[in-house]
Amino acid sequence: MEPVGITDLVFTERRNLYTVSRNPGKRVYGERLVNIKGTEYREWIPSRSKLSAYIMCGGKAFPFRKDSTVLYLGAASGTTASHVSDIVSEGKVYCVEFSPRSFRDLVKTSEGRDNMMPILGDATRPDEYSFALDRADIVYEDVAQKRQADILVDNMERYCARFGMVSVKARSEDVTADPKEVFRMTEARLKERGCRIMESIPLDPYEKDHMMIVVEKLRTAYVVAFKDGKYLMVHNRKRNGWEMPGGKIEGDETPEEAARRECIEESGYDVDIVAVKDIGYCKVCAGIVKERVSDGEMESDLFDSLPENLAFDTDEYNTVVPWARMIIEK
Ligand code: SAM
Q1: What is the pTM of this model?
Q2: What is the number of structural domains in the chain?
Q3: CATH number of the domain that residue 253 is part of
Q4: Which atom of ligand 1 is nearest to the CA of 72?
Q5: Residue 49 CA: which ligand 1 atom is closest?
Q6: Is the CB of 80 under 6 A from ligand 1?
Q7: Would you state the pLDDT for residue 315?
Q8: Dihedral angle at the C-alpha atoms of 234, 240, 246, 250, nearest 10 degrees?
Q9: 54 CB under 6 A from ligand 1?
């Protein structure tokens, strides 16, 4: 028995996969149990679990760590979730399932696994289970219904997760469409919502017309920067509207460093960052406009209320602008 290569939390022997059981002596779905020198391994059968199939099909991106917090959407009776519970032995797996019948089995599977939390809830309504957790490292989704990309990103944003994995079932999106087209559109939607595709692996021959997509949420930051009671905005020509200066957090940058660099690049104005607020998909800074240090790539202006033509269809400025104003005027 040796680690599988992409992670030291999954094991392999004679081309079979195993996880170390958190609940020794108990089978979840009839899998083989193997005891080696006092450690019990559970066989992880790829025809029964898409996450196992993903590894067998050569998936390399594996964001799980032993202390990860995982939000698992569409846990059914807990077959795969039980292996995730083995893998994140010092972390937790919150398992959302909306079918009461499957949920009963999920509760049984969770018995004896104190890091596995069954939740009866609907993955399309991420707020429904905020009583149970406030953030996650990874969202794993296997719901086999429409809008799989949006369900993933809505949950990643709500629970500030950096990584996401979705097992896309082509027929759930559109029974008549060519699966390749469904996968292409799902990837495009994930990118549009600010995700970087780390890997896309077809799950054939274990699951027909399924693709496992692993994503990382791009980290972004922007600044609401004030001068004489007004705030600085830049006009984004590509998006044809006004927005706060900001963009992607590069490498080891802090959100403050990224927001300041982006502000200088886009508006030409340097800025003093005074506070940072986490709004899930993005960090928002409150700042004070300093001197002009360069030309700036975009037209910029100072506003005392939001202009009509905003670049983003968003209400969030209605919350973050008063927040930043309160900090600056304190
Ligand atoms: N992930 C499971 C495994 O590997 O053991 C199998 C999941 S099965 C393919 C899909 C499950 O998602 C079903 O149990 C279904 O009831 C559940 N589901 C579908 N839509 C859902 C939603 N909106 N919220 C929660 N669960 C959902």
Answers
A1: 0.79
A2: 2
A3: 3.90.79.10
A4: 1
A5: 4
A6: yes
A7: 79
A8: -140
A9: no
